[in-house]
């Protein structure tokens, strides 16, 4: 479904937003924070989420069409698509969103080995570990002499509920932490109340 971009003002900031989906229920609020804008959200995912609840998309302060300055420490650092650092027991590890070469490329734990070879080609030889995400599917596997780790997702986990993450030191431990989803929804609703109310107008 399509929705027009609207603008609401809260605390002197003009936010770009879109609202669609059900008319009643607790809104599900998505805040685009670092890269891209509201157009970055996948319609197939958003339409499914909007079937039973209102969905609201916002560009955060200083992002895309919203005014103001980004108010996080990340603004003071160059944002790169990849970053590498030494990890105890795992050698030099490269951290990226999807794959080392593309922020939206999909590769899965059971992808063919020649596909992994293609995805990992061009990496410096001292990179022994790659930590990626994007698919939200937790896994650990060896591919062409490198350890590949996907810790999963905290906000949109694949499969079972919970905050999925990985402990790296000195090996790899995939973990899932249970949390009170209803309490989190209540907190998000309260925290965004100043923005949610004007958007309905």
Automatic annotation (TrEMBL):
<feature type="compositionally biased region" description="Polar residues">
    <location>
        <begin position="62"/>
        <end position="72"/>
    </location>
</feature>
<dbReference type="InterPro" id="IPR029058">
    <property type="entry name" value="AB_hydrolase_fold"/>
</dbReference>
<dbReference type="InterPro" id="IPR024654">
    <property type="entry name" value="Calcineurin-like_PHP_lpxH"/>
</dbReference>
<dbReference type="InterPro" id="IPR029052">
    <property type="entry name" value="Metallo-depent_PP-like"/>
</dbReference>
<feature type="region of interest" description="Disordered">
    <location>
        <begin position="61"/>
        <end position="80"/>
    </location>
</feature>
<feature type="domain" description="Calcineurin-like phosphoesterase">
    <location>
        <begin position="94"/>
        <end position="169"/>
    </location>
</feature>
<protein>
    <submittedName>
        <fullName>Calcineurin-like phosphoesterase superfamily domain-containing protein</fullName>
    </submittedName>
</protein>
<comment type="similarity">
    <text>Belongs to the metallophosphoesterase superfamily. YfcE family.</text>
</comment>
<dbReference type="Pfam" id="PF12850">
    <property type="entry name" value="Metallophos_2"/>
</dbReference>
